[in-house]
Amino acid sequence: MIRRVYPSKTIIRNCYVERVGNPSVARPLGSYPITVFLEGSSLKQWEKVDCLVIGAKARSLVGVPLPINPRELSLGTMKKIFGNKLAVSIKAGKLEEAEKDPFYKYVLRKREQF
């Protein structure tokens, strides 16, 4: 059910980092908010971030903080976001193929806005 409410590539705005570590834990404001475990992030406690959902657990989500830098992410995380073929081409430095993908352009545009 949680995957239906928060499908992959959903952006959750205004999450506050409650616990710093690997993974960090963030939640949006609310009376019973969803927990988002942020992979590979170096954040400060109570920092406000936007999260991109890349997976789900039983009662929580797995995500990455926006803005993302695709070159800093692991190949496994990039495969969850962009798919196998596109993730490998980004890691190899072939950005011509990646720039054709509208979601990749969206992530870069969001990165420039922050």
Give a verbal description of the structure.
The chain has 114 residues and is of the alpha+beta class. It contains five helices and five strands; from the N terminus they run αβββββαααα. It has helices at 2-5, 75-82, 84-91, 95-98, 102-113; strands spanning 11-19, 24-28, 35-38, 48-56, 60-66. The protein has a five-stranded mixed β-barrel. β4 (48-56) and β5 form a beta hairpin. The radius of gyration is 14 Å and the shape is globular. The mean pLDDT is 83.
Distance between the termini: 32 Å
Contiguous helical run count: 5
User: How much helicity do the residues have?
Assistant: 25-40%
Rounded radius of gyration (Å): 14 Å
Name the strands of the widest sheet in spatial order: 1-2-3-5-4
What is the H/E order?
A: HEEEEEHHHH
Largest sheet report:
5 strands, mixed, barrel
Structural class: alpha+beta
The proportion of residues in beta strands is: 25-35%
Describe the global form. globular
Question: What is the averaged pLDDT score?
Answer: 83
Low-confidence residue ranges = none
* Count of β-strands: 5
Pick out its properties.
114 residues, alpha+beta, five-stranded mixed beta barrel, 30% strand
